[in-house]
Amino acid sequence: MRPNSIVIIGASGGGPRALNMIFTGLPSLAGSIIVVQQMPKYINASFCESLNQLTEMNVIEAADETPLNEGCVYIAPSEKHIQITKNRMIHLFNGDKVNWACPSVDVLMKSIEWEPPMRVIGIILSGLGQDGAEGIKHLKKIGGFTIAQDESSAAIYGMPKSAVETNQIDWQLTPEQIRLRLIHLVGRRQ
Fold first, then answer.
1. 8-50, pLDDT tens digit by residue?
2. Which of 9, 28, 48, 153 has the highest local Cβ count within 10 Å?
3. Distance between CA 169 and CA 115 in Å, rounded?
4. Domain span at residue 85?
5. Three-state DSSP class for 71?
6. Is there a contact between 139 and 122 (Cβ–Cβ < 8 Å)?
7. Ramachandran region, residue 164 (left: φ > 0; alpha: ψ -120 to 50; beta: rest)
8. pLDDT digits (tens, 9 = 90+) for 92-130
9. Does residue 142 contact residue 120 with C-beta atoms inside 8 Å?
C-alpha cells in the first residue's frame, strides 16, 4: 500500500547507535522510511537484520525499481546513490561522491517532489561533514518537516550542525524524542 508519508534519515559516524534508539519499539507506521547510513558494503545485510529486530516495521535493503510501501524501512546500499522517482519508486545508480559520500542523503532528499497531502520528513543524525544540509533546505522549501539530532545526544555533531545552520530545522531532538515525533507525524498503520 502506498505510504501517506516519506521519512528520510541521513547519518554517518555515530548513526547506528542513534538509529537503534529510534527504531527500538517503533510501531509499524503508515509511511515509508528511507535510511542513508554511510557504512562499508559488507555490513549492509547485518545492519538491516539488527534494525529489523527492534521495530514492527519491515526493514530491508533498498533495491532498484522497488515501489515504496507503507510499513517498510529501506536501507540504502553502500556505494550507490539512491533517489525516489515521482515519490513512488526507488532508483539506485552509480555516481561520484557528493559531500564525500556515496550514498549521499542530499541526493535522496533533493529527489523528493512536492505532492500534498503526502507528508515528507527529513531527519539528520550524527555524522561528520555537511551531507544533508542542502537536502533539508529542499524539503523545507516543498513543505516538509525537518529534524536534527540534538548536540547533547550526537556522537559527532557535524551533519546535524550543518543542517541546523541552514535555519530550516523545525526540531532538535534526541533519538527517543525523534521516535515519538515520527509516531505523532506519520501515525500508526491501520
1. 999 999 999 999 999 999 999 999 999 999 888 888 899 999 9
2. 9
3. 20
4. 5-186
5. coil
6. yes
7. alpha
8. 999 999 999 999 999 999 999 999 899 999 999 999 999
9. yes
Grid coordinates belonging to 126: 550524527
Would you say 120 and 146 are in contact if contact means Cβ atoms under 8 Å apart? no
Per the structure, how many domains does the chain have?
Answer: 1
- The reported pLDDT for the residue numbered 41 is 84
Cell of 86: 515521482
Residue 68 and residue 86: Cα distance in Å, rounded? 11
CA atoms within 13 A on the CB side of 15: 23
Reported as a pLDDT band with limits 50, 70 and 90, residue 150 is: very high
Contact present, 78 and 35 (Cβ < 8 Å): no
Burial 121-141 (b: 16+ CB within 10 A, else e): bbbbbbbbbbbbbbbbbbbbe
- For the whole model, what pTM was predicted? 0.97
CA 69/CA 25 separation, integer angstroms: 20
Find the CATH number of the domain harbouring 31.
3.40.50.180
